[in-house]
Amino acid sequence: METTQKQIVLGILAHVDSGKTTLSEAMLYRAGAIRKLGRVDHGDAFLDTDSLEKARGITIFSKQALLTAGNTAITLLDTPGHVDFSTETERTLQVLDYAVLVVSGTDGVQSHTETLWRLLRRYHVPTFVFVNKMDLPGMTREQLLTQLNHRLGEGFVDFGAEPAARNEALALCDEQLMEKMLDAGTLTDADITPAVARRHVFPCWFGAALRLDGVDALLDGLDRCTRPAPALHAFGARVFKVSQDEQGTRLTWLRVTGGELKVKALLTGEADGEPWAEKANQLRLYSGAKYTLTEVIGPGQVCAVTGLTHAKPGTGLGAERDSDVPVLEPVLSYQVLLPEGADVHAALGKLHRLEEEEPQLHVVWNETLGEIHVQLMGEIQLEVLRSLLAERFGLNVEFGPGGILYKETITEPMEGVGHYEPLRHYAEVHLLLEPGEPGSGVVLASDCREDELATNWQRLILTHLAEKSHLGPLTGSPLTDVRITLRSGRAHPKHTEGGDFRQATYRAVRQGLRTAAASGGAVLLEPWYEFTLRLPQEAVGRALADMPRLSAEFAPPETEGETAVIRGRAPVSELRGYARELAAYTKGRGQLSCLPGGYAKCHNA
């Protein structure tokens, strides 16, 4: 009797240059999914299909490949390693069953490895570790294992060690394993698998992907120590990416979490408050640049669907709810400078198409100035955007100097009233604006009786509140962390039209914000980074002396061997050029790792 294969979705994550794509290639080769081993430095890697990636030797877009290890059918998702593309990585994490974190044996745990680890922890993804480049001079296995357990937390166990030593280490990670060890004196795969799924144990293998060392052991471990995700009976799926193929067809990538998705099935959802219904024309199973068409997709499988135009990354279909907004938000803004004579609106359309594919790219059209601005995470992303526009649309753009993205909020409740009553029109709206939780954005609610204002008018007012980003009274920056509640409103039985409420609603918001500014209840916010600074002990004095200038809030330095570690938070505007300074005064031995830490009060408003 043939056993059914278990399906798992596996992500590969790593710091840039740890050999992540090389490991993916080696896994595909050893599993028999590809016949020839490609290399990043030769530009013929199976997964880096994009010409930009071949040119730069880095992975920018997440890809997928299919392989089988023993009794396990694995959908492998390769994710970008560079911190500028963390949002793409973060979307992908939401559809993974397991991850392999690649660590370079020559460099050990780097600052971005810590960033990725925090994301894996946030999404509770069980993780295997492959320590690569062990054929090059660097740290020993023991040193690397100690560093992993020290820098990233407990639970890292060398699965290439002697069984007795491995079991002893495993027993220390998890109480149930300890009990089993005391009872039976040994541990089986059936004991270890749940501990891995609970994120109590992180199995580690050491090897060299380029020489295929340790790759078979990793594949064997993935087969033996994983279990499929529990699947629901009802159909559910989650969209994690949008891209387009060579013909320009829009591809919506999704993972089925329950039931099944049949070709030509009708999918429904809601986008910008409007319901949509579209057919899944093709279900494509991609491996690298090639795909096969399939009739049906089951739980634990990933496919690209054609025919959907509304679903965005993070959209839930069927029984699956929409995912929470990713935590990373762009913090820099650049003006797009088009070549002379270029059509601004055509360029805007092209940028909006890229915005659908790249959730962390925000395109903003400033009508009054006739300018396009893009908001993004960092400078590498700018270069990629420039090449994408040139390659795909033949559009050569430059960017103006980057600026910080400020926001505004209020500190006390404000009433806002808006009237709109020219001849034969009438609408009146009363709003309450209150400070919201940090990071909550703009939250809308209604607390208005139906006998005061009909439900359809109330819904219309909430739609108008949601359809544009409201600008603060201080600098005209977007409003955030505010709760807007509709308290009451009035319509005229004969003269009120839909557009009247739009005018009255915007006037009510403006009036409330103006009152806030006049009473000193409006504040300017700026993006902050949470940072970790690692540097030689002798450079600590200099770093501490820099902290006031960076307007940083920080904890006292901690000591790790010969390294000092300073953790804290500081405004993005102050930290932007600090990595270069750090490299200069530590002669390249200092490391600065930054994670967006949300918005806080501006340090120099």
Report what the structure shows:
With 605 residues, the chain is of the alpha+beta class. Helices cover 28% and strands 32% of the residues. A 7-stranded mixed β-sheet has the order 2-3-1-4-5-7-6, sandwiched between helices. It has a 6-stranded antiparallel β-sheet with strand order 14-13-16-9-8-17, covered by helices on one side. Helix 6 crosses helix 7 and helix 12 crosses helix 13. The longest helix is centred in the C-terminal third of the chain and has 21 residues, at 498-518. The chain is globular, with a radius of gyration of 27 Å. Mean pLDDT is 82; it is low at 46-62.
For the report, how would you describe the main beta sheet? 7 strands, mixed
Shape: globular
Q: How do the strands of the widest beta sheet line up side by side?
A: 2-3-1-4-5-7-6
The helix/strand class is alpha+beta
Helix content: 25-40%
Give the termini distance in whole angstroms: 72 Å
Count of helices? 16
**Gyration radius, rounded:** 27 Å
Mean pLDDT: 82
Strand content: 25-35%
Strand elements, count:
32
- Residue stretches low in confidence (pLDDT < 50, at least 5 long) are 46-62
